[in-house]
Structure formats: C-alpha cells, structure tokens
Design a protein that fits this description.
The protein is built from eleven helices and six strands. The protein is of the alpha+beta class. The chain folds into two domains: about 90 residues; about 170 residues, NADH Oxidase (3-Layer(aba) Sandwich), CATH 3.40.109.10. Helix 2 runs parallel beside helix 4. The radius of gyration is 23 Å and the shape is globular.
C-alpha cells in the first residue's frame, strides 16, 4: 500500500507541476500579447504608457528639493520623439497638453543651461502651437501645507493626497505608523483572509541599501524617515486560480494605508516593486523577510518640509475608464 501511495503522490505532484506550467504559459502569452513589446509598442495605449513614463521622469525630477541643473536631457529627447510620433498618428489630446506643459516647465527650469537651451528652446514654441489652452502638467508649489480634514469631505480628502519626494527633518513617531496600520486593517481581502504583513524599516542604512537594489528613490532617499514594505503571505492562497490574489489584497491595503497616513499628516510616496529573482533574494536576505511572503509594494514616509513641489500628475477622465454593461 505504501508503494501505491508513493506512486499516487508522485502522480499528483507531477500533475501539479504540469498545471502550474500551463498557468505560467497562459500568463506569459497574455502578458506578451498585451504588454509593451516590440510588436505593439506603437499602438495608442502602449505609446501613451511610454510617453507617460518619460514625462513623469521630468515631472518627478522637478518636484525634488534641489533638481540637478540640466537633468533629464535623455528623457526629454526621447519624450519629444515619442510626442511627435503620437501627434502624427493620433493628434492632440489631454495627454499631449499635459506633456507639453511638463516640457515647458522643464525647459524653463534649465533656462541657464546652454546645452538644454540649444537643444530644446526652439522646440518649445513649436509644441505650444499643437496644444490646447488648458494645461495640466508640471509641478504645484506648497507652503506650510496641512491636510484640511476639519469638515470632512471624502472627495476633497482623496483628491488632496499627493506623492511627496522631499521630506522634512521631523521624525514620524512609531505610534503614528501603528495608528495608520490600525486604520488600514479594515481593508477588504478575499474571504477576509488578510494576507498582508507590514515591515517598517527605520534604519537609514537599510533604507539606502534597499533604494540601491530596487531604485525609485534617487534624489530623496536620504530624506526618507521610514520605509514601509507591504507583503502578502502566500500561504493564504489556497487555489491555483488565486495566483494573483495576494497582489490584489496587498494593493487594496496599500491604498488604504496611504490614505490613513495622509489623514494623520504624514507625507508619503508609493514605490513599486518590479524586481528580478536576484533582487528579490537580496532583499529577503537584507531584511529577513520570510520567503513565503510576496513583496507587493514599498511606501516611503516622512514629514512635510516647509516648502516643496509635487507633480501635478494628470489623471484620466471617468469616461475614459468607465464601461457600462
């Protein structure tokens, strides 16, 4: 009987491997078909994504405390190339208006840089002629910012949140982080399995080291007071069809955590986690996170400085994402 039981387990294990391979191939095919690959990178949606990545590089750089003079020449050059291609193929829209506004602010910031002016000054007016009057890109300057939540209006509260990449010197008390997690615990999750774990990095050297591994914190990593790592425990996923559920639950929790931090007067910026296996292993070893947990996202937090800028970050219109059935 033990012999047959062993055979049964081996067959079951083999079928499980085959099933996992089949799912992997399915996901790989779907991602390859619809992602930004060389076969479709100049379709409208894919091109919009490439343009958005390029212009946000400039927008994000402008929002830093002390942007490096002349930064972003490569990104701006690529952005103009993509933008002109987009104009020729699809014409102007809200995205192109936003991009031109970002480019205009970037050129103005580098007005004393001869290299930037020689390349881009003539392009500024050419692009201006192609856009509408309602421009939305660039940065917004704040002074002595405090979230207005005395008379609560949820719509106004959510719209007042922004990504901060220039933190002040004041430390954020541990109790404030704990309070934000306490609020976020009410986030929904599949069958209330609550797979999320919150790892808080307080050691500056660990924060800097993780920034080097993954990136996304150039220009402001030294100002980060604490770095929150949102993970989801894979052991809560029971069925193979739930292979993406931990990302969903972790993402929902992360958004509620951002809003909770905002309600408590804490500045924050969400940092994605797009790593290869090597970076994953290095991070697990650095932080001691159990490998059964999937890293979903990082959130850098800190206090508000007296004066700072943030990207305007154009948002899509409801009709562009709303589909009635």
């Amino acid at each position: 009987m033990k012999y047959f039981e062993k055979i049964r387990k081996n067959i079951s294990y083999g079928l499980g491997l085959f099933r996992n391979l089949r799912i992997f191939i399915y996901d790989f095919y779907r991602f390859s078909k619809y992602s930004n690959n060389p076969l479709n990178c100049y379709e409208r949606k894919q091109l919009q994504s490439k343009i958005t990545i390029s212009y946000h590089d400039l927008e994000r750089g402008l929002s830093l405390k002390e942007p490096r003079p002349g930064f972003g020449v490569k990104a701006a050059t690529e952005l103009i190339r993509l933008l002109n291609f987009y104009f020729d193929k699809f014409g102007k829209d809200d995205l192109t208006d936003n991009v031109i506004d970002v480019l205009n602010e970037w050129i103005s910031y580098n007005s004393n840089n001869n290299k930037c002016l020689s390349i881009f000054e003539g392009i500024r007016f050419e692009l201006k002629e192609k856009c509408n009057e309602s421009l939305t890109g660039g940065t917004v300057t704040y002074r002595d910012f405090k979230p207005e939540i005395h008379s609560f209006n949820y719509s106004a509260f959510v719209k007042s949140r922004f990504s901060l990449r220039n933190f002040g010197p004041e430390r954020i008390p541990d109790e404030v982080i704990k309070k934000s997690v306490e609020i976020s615990i009410y986030s929904p999750s599949a069958c209330n399995r609550q797979p999320v774990k919150i790892h808080v990095l307080k050691n500056k050297s660990d924060i800097i080291e993780l920034g080097k591994l993954q990136g996304g914190t150039n220009g402001f990593v030294e100002s980060i007071d604490k770095l929150i790592i949102v993970t989801a425990d894979l052991r809560t996923s029971i069925y193979y069809k739930e292979r993406n559920q931990h990302y969903v639950d972790g993402g929902v929790f992360a958004m509620n955590l951002l809003l909770a931090l905002h309600s408590l007067g804490v500045g924050a910026v969400i940092l994605n986690w797009a790593s290869d296996p090597k970076t994953d292993k290095q991070t697990y070893n650095l932080l001691g996170i159990p490998k059964r947990e999937t890293i979903v996202v990082r959130i850098a937090v800190g206090s508000y400085p007296k004066n700072f800028k943030v990207p305007k970050s154009l948002k899509r219109k409801p009709d562009e994402i709303l589909v009635w059935h």
